[in-house]
Amino acid sequence: MNATHVEKDGKAPYYYVPSNSPHPIRTSLSLLLMFFGAALWVNSMFPGRWMFIIGVISLFVSLFLWFGEAIRESERGLNSQRVDHAYRWSMAWFIFSEVMFFSAFFGALWYAREITTPMLANLEHQHLLWPGFIAEWPNFGPGGVVEEFKTVGPFWLPTINTALLLTSGLTLTISHHALRANRRGGAIFWLALTVILGFTFVACQAYEYMHAYADLNLRFDSGIYGSLFYILTGFHGFHVIVGATILTVILLRMIRGHFTAEHHFAFEGAAWYWHFVDVVWLGLYLYVYWT
Question: Smallest Cα–Cα separation from 286: which of 154, 167, 170, 165?
Answer without folding.
Answer: 154
